[in-house]
Amino acid sequence: MSADAPKGGPEAQYRAFLAQGRFMIQRSRSSGRHVFYPRVAEPGTGATDLEWVEAKGTGTVYATTVNRRRPEDGGSYNVALIDLDEGVRMMSRVDNIAPDKVVIGMKVKARIAEIDGAPQIVFDPA
After folding, report:
1. Per-residue model confidence as pLDDT tens digits over 53-107
2. What is the predicted pLDDT for the residue at 35?
3. At 13, is the secondary structure helix, strand, or coil?
4. Best exposed site among 17, 40, 61, 122 by fewest CB in 10 Å?
5. Which residues contact 116 (CB under 8 A, 6 or more apart)?
């Protein structure tokens, strides 16, 4: 665990970083590979030498789908899998574009948005 990491388990630390306005992911000191979703050991190796590093915040849409809702229920939105430039994949959404205009291969940039009262990572077209 990094010296400046918030207290608690990996998920609590990740959420605390978001609350501070920081998009942080983990990286194994021994392999150099990035890890997401936050955890206590690197998948595949079991290495527990994970440290928190600032994510570049850039990535590419790997997959996307539109969740269609009635306008009175908030309207349609997309759910996307994003491959971060660090080599990990995360589920999020792409904002500031019509849900059906998000396409595979689209370059995106992360930002922290408040959703249902909690900070979350969302993406905008780059």
Report:
1. 999 999 999 999 999 989 888 889 999 999 999 999 999 999 999 999 999 999 9
2. 96
3. helix
4. 40
5. none
Cross-strand pairs, 91:
81
- Give the integer Cα–Cα distance in Å for 126 and 118: 24
Contact 31, 1 (CB under 8 A): no
Judge contact between 40 and 104, C-beta under 8 A: no
**Residue extents of the structural domains in the chain:** 10-54, 58-125
SS (H, E, C) 18-29: HHCCCCEEEEEC
Contact present, 26 and 39 (Cβ < 8 Å):
yes
For domain 58-125, give the CATH number. 2.40.50
CA-wise closest residue to 18 among 124, 115, 126: 115
